[in-house]
Amino acid sequence: MYPGMIYKIRCVEPQTFLDLDGANNYSIRSWQNHMGENQKWYIEPIGDGYTIKNVLNAKYLAPKGAPISHVQIIAVNFPFKWSIYADTRDVTACRIYAYGTQLSLDLSGGSKGNMIPILLCTDHGGKNQCWKLEPQQIFGSPFSYAPSFSTAHQESGILSLGFSLMKQQLEEVNRRIEEMRKLIEDTRDNNPRTNHRQLETRLDQLESMLMLHDEILNQRPVQAALVTDE
């Protein structure tokens, strides 16, 4: 029995979930939310990346063949390595790449409804390549052949994912804060008579960024990376 974190993986647009076809235990597609085990996934550390393993049959998320653009995503018997990064525009979401590439997990065409294929595609920044990880629970893996990570290793991996995404969130917020500070300074230096309301608006925006920065710092690592609600 090996404890691990279980997630549902929801596409930001069109709000459907990563789903293993329970009929063939092979195809990966989109599907509306349900409570089936085929819609739940273990995310486990492997070196500086992660594997994504289905709860129903312990098969791994992977491309069908070589990781090239527009290849279909399927479930396989061997681990496949992914990179997970916080989205630069929505810090509560993430993007999932085939490790060492700019090929992103992609809900084909951003189409609504069930049975839409999941592909590996060149990163284009679309919301159909943006995902939210919804934690379900932590409990022992039911698979006798699950990777033999120790409890400490599993917990370390979960925290590592949280800290990694938290760091990216903070970097993005810090970048926005610096941009806003520079804009305020340039406005003040280049045009001393700038409308006070305009400056107040920019200062309010800066204050909002600083508050977001503090909120991220005050979150637990896993909570910073993962959300359960919009």
Automatic annotation (TrEMBL):
<dbReference type="InterPro" id="IPR000772">
    <property type="entry name" value="Ricin_B_lectin"/>
</dbReference>
<keyword id="KW-0175">Coiled coil</keyword>
<feature type="domain" description="Ricin B lectin">
    <location>
        <begin position="7"/>
        <end position="64"/>
    </location>
</feature>
<protein>
    <submittedName>
        <fullName>Carbohydrate-binding module family 13 protein</fullName>
    </submittedName>
</protein>
<dbReference type="InterPro" id="IPR035992">
    <property type="entry name" value="Ricin_B-like_lectins"/>
</dbReference>
<dbReference type="Pfam" id="PF14200">
    <property type="entry name" value="RicinB_lectin_2"/>
</dbReference>
<feature type="coiled-coil region">
    <location>
        <begin position="163"/>
        <end position="190"/>
    </location>
</feature>
